Amino acid sequence: MFLDAGTITPVPADLVRRAPKVLLHDHLDGGLRPQTVVDLAAETGYPDLPEQDADALARWFAAAAFSGSLERYLETFKHTVGVTQTAEALRRVARECAEDLAADGVVYAEVRYAPELHLEKGLEVHQVVEAVLAGFAEGQRSAVAAGHRIRVGVLLTAMRTATHSRQIAELAVDYRDAGVVGFDIAGAEAGFPPTRHLDAFEYLRRENAHFTIHAGEAFGLPSIWEALQWCGADRLGHGVRIVDDIEIGPDGEPHLGRLAAYVRDRRIPLEMCPSSNVQTGAAESIERHPIGLLRRLGFRVTVNTDNRLMSGTSMSKEFELLNEAFGYGLNDMQWFTINAMKSSFLPFDERLSIINDQIKPQYSALRAVLAERLTERS
Ligand SMILES: [Zn+2]
Predict the structure, then answer these.
(1) 224 CB-contact burial (10 Å; exposed 0-12 / middle 13-18 / buried 19+)
(2) From the CA of 66, how far away is ligand 1's center (Å)?
(3) For the chain, how far is it from start to end, CA to CA, in angstroms?
(4) 304 CA to centre of ligand 1 in angstroms
(5) N or C: which end of the chain has fewer CB within 10 A?
(6) Would you name the residues annotated as active-site residues?
(7) What is the residue-averaged pLDDT of the chain?
């Protein structure tokens, strides 16, 4: 009997880690190493850390993130942003981000952050952008030295509760040839609809630039609809609430409403972040995460980390959780990964070459490794 090793589940942990992965939704200020937070607090004279030891601090971050209290969750970002107010700190954090993602098997990542949050000690926005780009360039080089190949693109985020979105959008266009591949808005969703930032989105469209919008996480369908139909978003950050427009009939058959049908028909990428969605209450549990249904219905879903530090996660861990909950194998991982690569903001030919030169051949090789392990055992 012929067995496709790509359907075997669960995928052994070492193969999940080695599998090429593509990450579209990761926050720079949500992914610091705990030791780095401690070091930077000491170096930059940041006085407010709740713990001085890296392990204790990591536990504090996880406890705050899982507390169910939005205030405590937001306090975690106060600290990571608080220690990254200098060019050196930003550069280090970006370098380590690229190194950590590469070591986890990520071959392409789009990492986002809000320049306007790093101006407390006198940096100008362009200095923030340049420090982060320099850090990513260093991280990509040191990853190669460690035997990994990663490419990192930057998304500049504007805070939806503030009024700088047009300026940040212009910054994204200014640095589009230097490694910034797109734009995003983030922050409290309820009460701050994306249409408040229409000027920024219209500007970006006139400039033929790409953007994604955090929508349909805390807030439902109207937020998704505005992001797509008023603002013209290329992708949706999270978008989990699109399931509110899918009804399961008495026959068990799913029926898509107009908006859900539009999202699927137009192949709008959904940047789903399973662990984060459970933490914020956007999904009940990993097992009941809408990603299972949406994948079955053929939506353009992708798997992401959101905030690796706060959620204590990585791309490998997210895939392990999904593989376990939904019985996914290497074939499913490849499907999610190609979805993400197709949805990236890189030029089309570069997306294709990562798919054809890295993702597909490496998954084939891993299927062969898994098949071999099984024959050895039988
Ligand atoms: Zn996010």
Answers:
(1) buried
(2) 16
(3) 13
(4) 9
(5) N
(6) 217
(7) 95
